[in-house]
Structures are given as structure tokens and as C-alpha cells.
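Exam revision sheet. Question 4 asks you to relate a sequence to its structure. Input first:
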Amino acid sequence: MKKKTIPSLLSISLNRDRLLATETRRQGDRLLVTRSIDVALNLDPLTADPKLAGRELADHLAAAGIRERRCLICLPLSWALTMQVDLPDLAEEDLNAFLHIQAEREFPYALSDMTLAHSRFHRPNGGQGAVVVSAPRSHIEALQAVFRAAGLRILAITLRPAAVGADLRDSKGSAAILINRSGMDLMILGGGGIQALRRLDTRLPELHSGDPFDPDPVARELRITLGRRAESTENGDRVVYVFGNNRQLDCIVPPLNDAMARIGWRVEGRSARLGFECDYQIDTEPDIPAVAAAGRLIFGLPLELLFDIEKRKRHTKLWGKTYTRRTVQFGGAAVAIAFLFLLVLLAREWRLANLESQWKSMAPAVAQAEKLREEANRLRPWHGARSESLAIVKCITEAFPEEGSLWTTSIGIKAMARIKAECRATNPEAFETMRAALNEAPFVNDVSLPNIKQAKASQGQPASCTLEFLWSGDVQ
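Answer key, C-alpha cells:
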């Protein structure tokens, strides 16, 4: 897959109280430096509120007309700890694990509290070594939060001196000094990488004050460092390259060259040898480390001492954009409502389960009660508080002849109004006697005797008929 190119980049060097930003873009085979700012910061980006510090950073960039959002961060060497280790003969995928183990042993922090970078090199007598650099993870995370708040996208984080003197990595052993505002960074280069890094806390004279530069403290630190790295430098070029702007070089290089000549080393000044062509559209002195690091990323050249950056996933970015106090309040209210609704459902299910258990225990008694209720409904006309049905039966029996020649086999009462009875008699005249008596009885209307059948003495069957009449009474 073709590597994605970077057409433009914002390189930022910062300390806790100062910001140096350089906007660069590619123009053919040349690097064009379009804008640069060097301003003081009111807020410490490591301890201040990320939103406030990010707003201050964005305001400085906007005031300078810088619109580039992709950026490279160059950390000061004073924020880092360094060590040198010998690399064993391990597979490439196991070397990082080995470096992490060595860092956890040597540095006074837990591995989870550090962010690591390294530069590997070949020793003159064979074998490989590496310089391991540790920066506090809290610093990296604080800067990431500030730059996100400023609307910047971090592509890489490295040390400020990492890209300086990149063309000297393959030398036989040289030293390089990077001049900063508050001191110097010393590097031992060779074997294809950086062999040592050290911060020299030497106060530099103000260039406009006219005070002479005292080279002895710097020369003493150089002798100590070079003595510790004699294996790498004794057969080398024995040259100390000093990187800075022209005024700094004019002030520092001549007296330092005289001091180092006593031990057989010479000092050369280098201002803008970056390994690629560069044009400047700014009036101020360029920030050489920032320009060098930005150019190497833009042109796809290797850049050492890159710290690991934890890139946020897409859903994390979306959450970061929508995470506000209002969304938290609405989200909390929604969660509370959902929780209450769930409690109501659970209480309902518990209540239903409890009622079902009670029903199962009382179901046999309910079935028996239903059966008794149905039987009571069937017998209610005979056992209710109303005596109308008994009055009807009494009216019929009082109409029977006294000699007992007539009787009934069934009596049907429909809606306490229509009466139908099946009668038997030994003497058919008894039917007429009953009819006459019912016609004179109160509440009785429309008496009829359909279907009169004569008796069959030979077969022993009595006479029969059907008695029908209407009842209009309401007897209590």
C-alpha cells in the first residue's frame, strides 16, 4: 500500500512557559517555511485546564495566521530520562519487549507511567546498542488533551534534538550540541543512530548584552561525556558540531573551539544543513529543530525517538465531541428513568408470580365453590326468599279432586309466568274438575288442557293430559 504523503505540517516546540511554532509545506522537492511564531505562554500546558490552555494555544496560532491542523510536537530534553543498553541477539519482534523490561529496571517509574522512544546504533567492535528515552506519560496525555482542545491533530511526538544532525548518524563518532534558549543539548552520534543524550544546564549570555561566553563549563561537560564514550569516539572524526542561529554560533563556536582544541577536538558551527532544500518566507530566525523534524516527516525520511501515541478510536472521538454537561445530565436522567421502569417491571413480575402461586394453592377450593354455586342457582327457585314458585304449586294441588284421582308427573315454570304440567288421572272427568277450579283461582289465566288421552284399561294406563296456564301473581 502506498504510504500517505503529508503536504503540510505544523511543527511545535514548547516548554512550560514558551511556544515555538513553525508552519511548513512541501513545494516539489523543497520545503517551504511559511509562518513562525515565538511567544510566551500564560498557562502551563501540563497543569492548566486543557480547555483553557488549548484556547490560548489556538488564539496564538490564529493571531499568526496559522491554519494548519496537522502537527508534530518536539519535546525538550529536560522532560526526559535517558539510558544506554546493549542489545542481545534477539528477533526483531522481541527487541521492543526487551527494551521495555530494561526501562522498567533502570528508570524510577512504573512502565505504565512512562512513554518510551529509542534509537539503535552499531558499535565499532560489533554488536548493537540503543539509547532509550523515557517521558512521563502524564506529560504526553496532558499535551494530547490541550492540543485536542485547540483543534490540532497530533501526527508524532519526538524530542527536540532528534532530527538535528541526521546526516551525521553514519559518522565514525561525532558530537553535536543544540543551542536552546535555556541551555544546550549534547548528543553523541555514530553507528547509524544516537549513542548518547545529555542536557547541559549552562546559562548562555544574552546576545545583545555584550557579555563574553565562558566555554570552560561546556568544555568540562564535553570532556566527561566524551570520556565515558571513548569506545565510540576515539577513532572518530573528533568534531563537535554546534547547531543554532548565526548570532549564537558567532558567540559560542570560537571560544569553545579554543577550549576543545586542548584535547584534540575541533568545533564547527552548523546553522541550516537539514538534508533537504528549504526556503524561508519569514523574517525571523527559523527554529532549526522544528524545521528539521517537520521536513523529515513530510519527505518520508526516518525520524528517530518517536514516542508512542495512543490514537483514539472513532467512537471515542464521537463521544469526546458530544460529551458536555447537558448530555451528561440528559444521559443521567435517561438512565434513572430506565432504572425506575425496570424496577416497576420487576415488581410487576414478582407480584404476578406471587398471585399465580396463590391461585394454584386455592384453585381446588374455587372449583368446588363454583360447583356449589351452580347447584345453588339450579335450586334457588325452591329455596330462595321468594315463595312464588311454591304458590304456583299450591294453586295446582288445590285444584286436584279430593278423592285423589288426579296427580302430576312434572311441573315446568318458565320466567314465573308460563306454567306447564303433565297430569295423570284414573277418571278423565277429573281433568275438567281441575280446569274449573283453576279458572276460579286468583292469578291464573288462559287455562287449557291440550292432548287429553283416554285411559287404556287393558294395558293398565291412566288417562293423561297436558295442563297449561299463565301466572300473573307476585306472591311474597
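Marking note for examiners. The longest strand covers residues 30-40.
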